[in-house]
Amino acid sequence: MREQFEIRDHDGAGRLGRLAVPRAGVTVETPALLPVINPNVLTIDTGRLQSTFGVDALITNSYIIHSTDRVRERALEEGLHDMLGFDGAIMTDSGSFQLAEYGDIDVTTAEIVEFQHAIGSDIATPVDVPTPPDVDRDRAEADLETTETALADAAAIDTGEMLVNAPVQGSTHPDLRERAGRHAAATGLDVFPIGAVVPLMNGYRYADVVDVVMGAKRGLDPDCPVHLFGAGHPMMLALAVACGCDLFDSAAYALMARDGRYLTVSGTEHLEELTYLPCSCPICAEHTPASLRDAEDARRERLLAEHNLHVTLEELRRVKEAVRSGTLLELVERRARGHPAMWDGYRALLDHRDQLEATDPVSKGTFFSLSADSARRPEIVRHHDRLGRLSVPESLLLTVSKPPSDHDYDAVWRVRPPFGPIPPALSEIYPLTAETPSRPNAALRRAAVDGVARLATDHPDTAITFAHDGWEETVLDRLPESVALENLATIGR
């Protein structure tokens, strides 16, 4: 049991939590964003990260510090917190990114973890191998063995109160990610970053990111705090939290500002192309695109970075409220409409609906059916599973319209897409109080018919009649032959 991480609320696989960081003497509320700080170039004053932005934790690169004589000596003498002017939790990376970029680094896990401890890091990282996407299985397994050795080396070091990351690798092989997660969880280490996903995100392969994360989550224990390395664009935070990620680090706010790029929750805009600033953060309230373009280079970069950080943290607060209120999947769907690749990611998430259903609360606020893909949400799966446990009479009329006042059936139940059969006694219970389209499309009707079919299969001794209002044959063909059909659109003609 990892006592340093407390889960306080769930929605889907997303959660609100508290991560105790004992060496820093702070507790970080999750989901949390850790801005990436370059120890050589401070784009934003780190003291303002707490006072202005409310940031509780940041991440910096211990390998860069270790490799730069001037910075190394200062870090050893002053400690990271004084050197960076930051009182919150500080996580340090190990040089694995440089290893991925350049093929080799001149430091071992034992050396870099001990160095991270010496400079006062609160959460350290071993030298894992970030295996690129799409490599063959032999290479992915070989790299994974090297990473597992690094985790063992890190676990053998007495780090006192310093937490230690246990990165989860495995390339784009979900079963290897699951194996790696299971191994990492057994090490006794503290925080579990899912690594080497930046190339997938840079390629807009959000569906693959989802499959990788869900694979890792199957191996990790429920009380493992999960860090999605390199994920910090506001567009994808809701999706990543819905997958069960708790920590994120963002260099995007600074890197994109350097290139004149302006972050939004639906994508990235170029400052040169903007006529208006579609945001009300302090930077956007006080400036226009023209005034930002006319600013001196360093000032423009700082102002853009501050906007990018404001919009990212605002989205994270929005995600937290969605988890608390039980509307996270609705938020994910709204964000998914901003880009086709994000929609692929949302649909990939729903492919893992059984995994989501394991932690999804049985009762929330109102369920909103926003699209055909709403029919694949875990709430629908759960309702269909319940149908087999219901008490059903000998004869039953299922109807999509108002039940008739006179009938020869033992009972009449309504059918509502995408849920299917709804007994009157459950009609006021979540999620059957849902707001659904008055003109459901074929996908929602198919989900409803699947519910009717499930009821008929689970209760073969009940005579079931389904009264529809002209539903297409391709939908009705999903019903077993035992279900009698009535077309309300043709009755009386």
From TrEMBL:
Substrate binds at residues 128, 196. GO terms for cellular component: cytoplasm. One of its GO terms (molecular function) is pentosyltransferase activity. Keywords: Glycosyltransferase, Metal-binding, Transferase, tRNA processing, Zinc. Zn(2+) binds at residues 279, 281, 284. Pathway: tRNA modification; archaeosine-tRNA biosynthesis. Its cofactor is Zn(2+). The active site is at 93 (nucleophile). InterPro entries: ArchSynthase1/Queuine_TRR (IPR050076), TGT-like_sf (IPR036511), TgtA (IPR004804), tRNA_ribo_trans-like (IPR002616). Its EC number is 2.4.2.48. Binds 1 zinc ion per subunit. The keyword tRNA processing applies. GO terms for biological process: tRNA wobble guanine modification. It catalyses: guanosine(15) in tRNA + 7-cyano-7-carbaguanine = 7-cyano-7-carbaguanosine(15) in tRNA + guanine. Residues 13-340 form the tRNA-guanine(15) transglycosylase-like domain. PANTHER family: QUEUINE TRNA-RIBOSYLTRANSFERASE. HAMAP family: TgtA_arch. Exchanges the guanine residue with 7-cyano-7-deazaguanine (preQ0) at position 15 in the dihydrouridine loop (D-loop) of archaeal tRNAs. Belongs to the archaeosine tRNA-ribosyltransferase family. This is tRNA-guanine(15) transglycosylase. It comes from Halopenitus malekzadehii.
